[in-house]
Amino acid sequence: MKLYPIKFNPIFKEYLWGGTKLKEVLGKDVKTETASESWELSGVEGNVSVVSNGELKGNTLQELIDTYKEEFLGKDVYNRFGNKFPILIKFIDAKLDLSVQLHPNDALAKERHNSFGKTEMWYVMQADPGSKLIVGFNETLTKETYLEHLKNGKLLEILNQEEVTTGDTYFINTGKVHAIGAGILLAEIQQTSDVTYRIYDYERKDKDGNTRELHTEQAVDAIDYQKKDDFKTSYETTYNSSNNMVNCDYFVTNYLDVVGTFVKQLVNRDSFTIYICVDGQAQVTVGENSEKLVKGDTILIPAAINEVIISAKDAKILEVHI
Question: Which residue among the candidates 80, 198, 204, 212 is catalytic per the annotation?
Fold first, then answer.
């Protein structure tokens, strides 16, 4: 069977900080009153995405990889990651502030959790006026000064806060403390990992009156204590062009602003390609197969496909590959 552009059913997650934007802004079929995350494309054990369109409908992402291997992932990607899908795509709606956290690097995550590390990036899709992200420290610290601030309830004093607006993009390397602030809806692209070290949660309690677990001891050796201005990403917005946003060891993300028809040649790309529509709507065509892509939709183009045609009046799309 010839592979085609594949869409997946979203997997919804509910945490105490979630809101209603996944339903109201992105049109997600959320059955609960609120939702925090929509996992668009996931190979995480226990949360594996299921195909929602075409002949492969009902198959899991894992079954596609097991069946099609290099045709699906790309030869180089398959050699590097085997049968594990290396990317996790999410939409996140923060009605309230998320906890301050960080992620371990590959070596530490492998040693402690038998997992990949978690390098990630954020693309802000919508932000209420005054909404902020926490990204890194506002001064260089030692382990001792960090722990002193944490112990005395003064952690927020040493965190760097960034006011954001639609289109802002941030690259979050491992070890960097970070948090999504209230009022922000964003797309997150990350390594396949669910390992998070939570270091501060505003002393909040859940609906049962319990505070959430903190990972103070695990985090100490994983934190990057240096003040760095390496997180906000600038990029071009040229029409009908793949404008590079992030290029790291784990993924490449480009920004597409499609007006009219954009033909993308993939013949030399030894990787699957993911398209995430962050505004507008488009038609994605491969041969005789055509799929509508609207704001909040994600679609995967298997590596065996050599050309994609994207047509739109004006659609803003993130293009992700390895």
Answer: 198
Q: What is the pTM of this model?
A: 0.96
Assess contact for 231 and 135: CB atoms under 8 A: yes
Contact status, residue 282 vs residue 290, Cβ threshold 8 Å: no
Give the phi and the psi of residue 151 in degrees, each rounded to 5: -65, -35
Residue 156 is predicted with a pLDDT of 96
Q: Which residue, 276, 275, 282, 292, is CA-closest to 313?
A: 282
| 10-residue mean pLDDT series, the chain (322 residues) | 95 96 98 97 96 98 98 97 96 97 94 92 98 98 97 96 98 97 98 94 85 93 95 97 97 98 96 98 97 98 98 98 98
**Tokens found for residue 169:** 């993009």
- Could you tell me the two tokens for 219? 């985090």
Q: Residue 24: in which H helix or E strand, if any?
A: helix 21-24
Residue 204 is a catalytic residue: no
Please list, in sequence order, all residues whose beta carbon lies within 8 angstroms of the beta carbon of residue 322, skipping any fewer than 6 positions away. 74, 76, 77, 80, 86, 87, 250, 251, 252, 271, 272
For residue 104, how far is the Cα from the chain centroid?
Answer: 16
Cα-Cα-Cα-Cα dihedral sign, residues 15, 17, 20, 25: negative
Query: How far from the centroid of its chain's Cα atoms is residue 14's Cα?
Result: 17
